[in-house]
Amino acid sequence: MATKFIIDTDPGIDDALAIACAFADPQIEVLALTSVFGNASVTQTTENALRILEVLEQDVPVYPGAHRPLTMPAKDFPAFVHGENGLGNIPQPKAKRQPEPISAAQYIVNAANQYPGEITIVALGPLTNLALAVALDPTVAQKIKRVVSMGGNLHVPGNVSAAAEANIYCDPDSADQVYNAGWPVSVVGLDVTHQVTTTIEYFEQLEKKQPIVGKFLHQITRFYMDFYQDCYQIDGCHIHDSSAIACATHPEWFGMESGQLRVVCDGECKGKLLLHKDAGYIHKFNPWLEKPEVDVAVTVDVKAISNWLDTIF
């Protein structure tokens, strides 16, 4: 039986591939997309989500979400990574459908009540919508099967600073709240996603196999590939978000470290993840005390993900 997914997303070039992977995987039933700021404004990411669904010929709803971090001021969006429109500056026709009239956070609460214990939320951007859902209904964490969060870095450097990965850096307060809300959480960050890469040849082959979807992904990914060549001098790109989709359906491909997880919320190390594996012996005022255990991915079966990407389309 397919697992019910809500994909919380800020499309985003790599988000587009991840969304396509989710719809292509028979183990996944996508209930909805919820949009959030991140790779572009939430107005743009909502439009992009609708456009991606049209390309995929999928009719699931899109619920618009947070336009800014929970407590911090809004910042500029990374147009140099994803383009001004979030989709590699490839002109897109305006989506024919409209987003839903309720917020992403309210939808998450509603869906959790409708399908208690059945839904996996895969969060591909900042975690603001999930934090807002918990604020609306603190019991929502007990009704979600699992949260898979693409973000963070434990034993490797960040990608927006020496300390932090982009999604967590965008809203560290939300991340800290979500990781400690009490639902089962798996964090898929740079420790593993920087090991998973693909090349332009993959998208060329995908276009041959799936002319409409493959062409769309091939076109928008060129901008992303150019960024990786300029910034990292690699001929290809890391597929962060698709790795999170893979973890949600195939957790056996990932090696985890488990413990109490906190997020640095200010200062030069803002966005840094800190994992403590045994909070039992430390001082009673320590902020890790009585926090739930979170799984953080530190190893990955790269070949398994590569094979998955080759076979689902």
Keywords:
alpha/beta, 11 strands, two-stranded antiparallel ribbon, nine-stranded mixed β-sheet, 12 helices, 313 residues, Inosine-uridine Nucleoside N-ribohydrolase, Chain A, 38% helix
Describe the model.
It comes from Pelagibaculum spongiae. The protein has one domain (3-311): Inosine-uridine Nucleoside N-ribohydrolase, Chain A (Alpha-Beta Complex). The strands form two sheets. The chain has a nine-stranded mixed beta sheet with strand order 3-2-1-4-5-6-11-9-10, with helices on both faces. Strands 7-8 form a two-stranded antiparallel sheet. The protein contains twelve helices and eleven strands. With 313 residues, it is α/β, with parallel strands linked by helices. Helix 1 packs parallel to helix 11 (240-249) and helix 4 packs across helix 5.
Quick structural overview:
The chain is α/β, with parallel strands linked by helices.
Chart the SSEs and their pairings.
Blueprint: E1 3-9, H1 13-24, E2 28-35, H2 42-56, E3 62-63, H3 79-82, H4 104-114, E4 119-123, H5 128-136, E5 146-150, H6 166-170, H7 172-179, E6 185-188, H8 190-193, E7 197-198, H9 200-209, H10 211-232, E8 237-238, H11 240-249, E9 254-263, E10 273-276, E11 293-300, H12 302-311
Parallel strand pairs: 1-2, 1-4, 2-3, 4-5, 5-6, 6-11
Antiparallel strand pairs: 7-8, 9-10, 9-11
GO molecular function: purine nucleosidase activity
InterPro entries: Inosine/uridine_hydrolase_dom (IPR001910), IUNH (IPR023186), Ribo_hydro-like (IPR036452)
Organism: Pelagibaculum spongiae
